[in-house]
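pinned: reference chain
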Amino acid sequence: MLDQALADELEPGRRLAELAPRDRAFARLLVVTVLRRLGQIDDAIGRCLDKPLNRSAQPALNALRLAAAQAMFLGTPAHAVADGAVRLMGHRQRHLSGLVNAVSRRLTRDAASILADQDDIRLNCPEWLWQTWSAAYGVVAAQQMVASMLLEPALDLTFKSDASTWAQPLDGEILVTGSLRRAAGGAIQELPGFEAGEWWVQDAAAALPVRLLGQVADREVLDLCAAPGGKTAQLAASGARVTAIDNVAKRLALLRSNLDRLNLQADALVADVLSWQPPKPFDFILLDAPCSATGTIRRHPDIWHLRTSEDIVRSAGLQDQLLQAAMAMLAPGGTLVYVTCSLQPEEGEQRIEALLSSGAPAVRRPIVAAELFDLDDLITPQGDMRTLPYQLGGMDGFYACRLERNS
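pinned: its structure tokens
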């Protein structure tokens, strides 16, 4: 994943770590822009070549991709675009430096006309995702979804207490959902309130599912597949006694670190949800199931290129197992909220239908608008929550369903 790759490059002695903060930020922006707009970028490069580059010319192609990102989307001066691309060639493919220089200059010269002639929606969205989304949500909604994914997302923050007093210090706005939104950019650790543990980064959509559990203050809540811990922090801040389970030690260490900074408490255990047995059933369970994460492409554009339709099938099988395991941990009359950050119906609505059709001892407890700040458009006809990337000025795509175990 891109975030992990960039984090690895910030380790001492790595080249990215040696750059000044401003240069590191620009390097990240370059990579993200290429991944977000790769369809348009490769189309533009193809228009400037007499014939496609062969596989051995991959370094030249990548240099041109970086050049195209700067010329078409970042407004980098023309001379800097060409010079940077040529310098990237180094000694390995010096024989292609002339080609790279010529194509880079043409990209800067023709960027406006190329952009005007491109279909950015269809070029950047993989065909299999486009077919799935247009079938599930309609062509117009799918177009709006992809358009929102091509934009740099804002930074949403969740607060332990009332966020309104932080709008001015953080130069942000308070959304109807209670999240604070500010423009992306700058070092998060240097923002007011970070060191004091007043808030954590969490997309506005990701902050909604916890509300569906209801009043959990002083109640025991089981948080399954909990890392990196945004929802765990919400539960702890609301006064719940949280048991957080995740099967990856490194991710759970990050959860513990985040809770320490926020001065919040939870029992965090490394365990496999499919085999772990709680000492007693829980009245409240949050299952934030692993998924394709297609709802987070705005923030993680590498997902465009990493996921396949086969991944969805594999994820769905695991989600079925996790739902059955979670149901076995739920007390009679208890509430289970199933969550995925996926836009794929196969990882959302279809999983719930499969669970209920299997004879699981549960019923759907439909969500009402008042529980989601009267945002009627976030509620499906079945009474589940479904957020889409173009809603609320831009938010991640989430699915959540609330189930109650039969008494």
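why pinned: Residues 161 and 198 are 8 Å apart (CA to CA). The longest strand covers residues 330-340.
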